[in-house]
Amino acid sequence: MSFGLSAHVPKDQDGVSGAASGTFNVGSPATNLGCKGHFNSKVDCLVVTPTFGATFGAHLTAHVTQATGQFAGLQDTEIDVAVQDNGTPSAITPDMIGDGNTTASCAEGTDAGGGPTAPSQPVTNGNVNVHDAM
Questions:
Q1: pLDDT tier at 75 (50, 70, 90 boundaries)?
Q2: Pick from 61, 123, 51: nearest CA to 88
Q3: What are phi and psi for residue 14, nearest 5 degrees?
Q4: Number of domains composing the chain
């Protein structure tokens, strides 16, 4: 499975935050028997938090605008995503990601196991880069 994530909250010259924007897209290729599909979503809320040292985590929500295959049931729903930036791809601890379903923009949701959405899955190919645009 692959994903693309880009989320931003612009700040004006006085440091006042604007509305969140961006996309979160997930795809599962045809080679994944029974799991083929994709979804596209538009980010509507983003919160960046320092975690430890110089790293950051982020929680975002997004509205699913298009979904096919195994993801078809997500069409027109709100999802949430949590990520943890643990440094460069060669870092000892990999970056992490987790997703779930939520009921509203900016509301923390639940993952497939019924717990709160948390960055619980390692990113094995690529890099999550989270930073606070001060």
A1: very high
A2: 123
A3: -95, 5
A4: 1
